[in-house]
Amino acid sequence: MSKILSRRDLDFLLYEWLGVEALTARERFAEHSRETFDAFLDLSEQIAERDFAPHNRRNDIEEPTFDGVRVQVIPEVAAALKVFTESGLLAATLDVGHGGYQLPHVVARACFLWFQAANIGTSSYPMLTMANAGLLLAHGTEEQVATFVRPMLEGRFTGTMCLSEPQAGSSLSDTLTRAVPAGDGTYKVSGSKMWISGGDHELSETIVHLVLARVAGAPAGVKGLSLFVVPKHLVEPDGTVGERNGVTLAGLNHKMGYRGTTNAVLSFDEATGYLVGEQGRGLAYMFHMMNEARIGVGAGAVALGYTGYLHALAYSRERVQGRPVAGKDPAAPPVPIVQHPDVRRMLLASKAYVEGGLALVLYAAKLLDEPSPEHDLLLDVLTPIVKAWPSQWCRLADDHAVQIHGGYGYTREYPVEQFYRDNRLNSIHEGTDGIQALDLLGRKVTMRDGAGLALLLDRIRATARQAPDDLGGPVLAACDRLARTTATLWRDGNPTVALANATAYLDAAGHLVVAWMWLAQRNAAGDRAGAFYDGKRLAARYFITHELPRTGPLLDLLDSRDTLMADLDDRCLG
Amino acid sequence: MSKILSRRDLDFLLYEWLGVEALTARERFAEHSRETFDAFLDLSEQIAERDFAPHNRRNDIEEPTFDGVRVQVIPEVAAALKVFTESGLLAATLDVGHGGYQLPHVVARACFLWFQAANIGTSSYPMLTMANAGLLLAHGTEEQVATFVRPMLEGRFTGTMCLSEPQAGSSLSDTLTRAVPAGDGTYKVSGSKMWISGGDHELSETIVHLVLARVAGAPAGVKGLSLFVVPKHLVEPDGTVGERNGVTLAGLNHKMGYRGTTNAVLSFDEATGYLVGEQGRGLAYMFHMMNEARIGVGAGAVALGYTGYLHALAYSRERVQGRPVAGKDPAAPPVPIVQHPDVRRMLLASKAYVEGGLALVLYAAKLLDEPSPEHDLLLDVLTPIVKAWPSQWCRLADDHAVQIHGGYGYTREYPVEQFYRDNRLNSIHEGTDGIQALDLLGRKVTMRDGAGLALLLDRIRATARQAPDDLGGPVLAACDRLARTTATLWRDGNPTVALANATAYLDAAGHLVVAWMWLAQRNAAGDRAGAFYDGKRLAARYFITHELPRTGPLLDLLDSRDTLMADLDDRCLG
Asked: Cofactor(s) for this protein (chains A, B) (predicted)?
């Protein structure tokens, strides 16, 4: 069985729960069928196993280096990206007119999870390129699409997003990079950008940077930000790559994990840039890409947790050590560690985290395939949870995977220690967990008079009512509780009080949402016989009985409108 | 201010809370005074800052390598160990007759924390040597003391403990290494030992291994284990180092962190060994060393968490980013991130973890200085908590430290990412968290009809009764609750049921014990004015109101005598 992902679980989620075959009734997906979906899934598994997984460790040990002239990346990366592009996966969800396959997002998301689980470092390049291309297709001119998007989809160019600056990470309103009209319709872009994943390398003919910058005279704050295409090289009218643009690599960041993806500090010095859409709408366009990237980060966290879990499960069945608690006869033969209760605890918890996280990511992706105002609203509310919950809990699955491997798990001879380091990034990039919490409680649950939260709770309740009472009951109660707590927090509209414990709110809401995902899987499993369905029923029970109660103290704290953090005098801290 | 540890906090804990000056009334410590204690503390801080901290990162990047002949360690390590030995700290707690200073354990523990926080990799060598020497002083012959202990205390030799084997990590009863009497009073020791910290290097003239092995014909299980001194080189009658003994390095393990300490697979091939004490008592002697090592591991986890916290606190005051929630005027100047509630949450939680953990470690150490049957019992009960609690929660402080640093915290340009990796080991070595949980619930709280737990709860209650009601009340309630839960779990003496959720028990008991440590600090702070005391009062309040409630769902689960883990069919897991 693959230790990258479980195809059996993907099939269950896609076909037995989400019923993605029914999407083929839609005009956009009319050319598709279970067979074409399966063909993409099969292909993804094959390429991930053959071209991505084998160099995952080498990507870590021999991380990219900058020799002062160019960035060196191990050759397996370019080879894997070539196979990926040729497979058609890079353009899978795009219109046929753009060279795509109009594959549903939910299936494409499942496909891409194979690559993220097999090699998060290498998979970041196409992920960023797809997000970049998607933004330009939505907001760019025809010429920008022809010049930049087509070569990206052909694998000749790669893409990045350049938001952060050394002094402005979470706080984009402090962006200093400036753009000056050059008089010919282009702009001269100058400034410093930080944390640019895929920001420099020799993996493509050039790199298409999407850069947030402020046009001279624009207002302060995020409303003054515009978006520019700034390629590493200028592109000639015939589409070939010309001379270098004013973008230079100031240095690479050396990370704890995720080392296979270059991460750069870039200097823009009067670089030629092309305005995307209208001035002052840069952040709005970028949010298009960022929301997709946030779901991608959540998916990456799930993928790393999932492969960690599968490695730990396999190890727990091979590794023989000690005897079950009840019969400590030293003459009895030792048993595989999967028989020890504490190892099972870590395995079952991990299963609940990674399969719950996977369900959430696929559920969110499917909302994109059935667009409606309601689905847009639901996705808006869910996005901070899809991003942050797996970043915390699927990371914990990797932590458990290390622990289950014991001393071996702490060594670089076993892959789980890399998963643990790699997954640590996901709580940081594309908006930290704390930023997601503020987004959820400060914006998403209050917007449109709370319509998003009400819709979410309606959906959860509908699922809970179909579940066995002993599982559905606690979830129904938690829905009521979260609604009350939200009202309590915002009762006087004071954001300092309401947001004082925003992270506790995100934690509670996240666990409720994943409890919902478990009830949904429980309902889909029904009474069907077999170890696979037993596993779904067991994990659903585990999540409701062992995990959901964690929300109790969090909601108690929120209900108390505690402002210990907001009020404290930081001199007390030491 | 030092970012290694807080001397102000150590002074508070040692002098204002634990009253260690009163120890000088004891005959053993009669030559000491506040001045001599302070001199050792000052010296430790100086040496840690000057000789240990500066090479902490180099220890990580240029980890020890084995060229097939010898193990290469960066030269700063030997230099630091020389200074450490010459300072007198290696023998600080030992009898004057053995060249020691009869320093109280509690003061020595505080001193050693400076080295663990400054450089956990380098500090492991003296920690292991001290534990080894302590065991031989307690159980070895005069000749063994003369031959091995004296050179260890002079810094000429270093020591290890060799328990684990490739097939026997947590399960020592499966030890296969065997010892055959050579006919001259010595033994020939053969077998393979795994995870031997400090197991090979050129930092000392030779290495004194303490090896668990089974004499031919000994019974199965732990009762058949005996302990042997097996030096890397034979020692000549004049005390000089002679030819190599039959101990060879089979390889080094390459770890996620803690890289400055070599970790070896050792092959013993008819190596000459000297029996320590009586046959069959090996594990009992080793537990002497292991209990000390477990407190040392807890202390290491505290030290790494503490330095992580201090780095994060300093960074949060320097790093300017964003605006406080209530006033999002983009024209307002950005603020230091310490003003953001979510950063404060992580800082205050970290403070509560690391200062609570430090208090616990020092409390436990002081029990050794006032030996009595009661104190022995209390230390027995506390040891698994002292080991496991900081390994989880002070590790979380390092996790928070990474998060507070944002992207910078994920890079190797900042020290917190190393602390995070280093601290991951502490939940694994010297008995995993799961093993500590079984030790606590399966042995420590049941032994002597529960006298240990009763004593612990009495001590906690006495402190809680002196605390303000709103803080003491929840702790008193938790004491009653833990006592009831313990009785419920063991009511029919079925270990399979009682131990099914042992980790939840450890988690709950650990949080209760640290809540006690916070009440004790709160009581010691009293109403004294100043930011330092405000901080103690604030963190105590935080721990009781934000942390202690976590125990509720854990105790609910335990009360339900849930056996989901024990009963499950592992085929369900995937």
From this structure: FAD
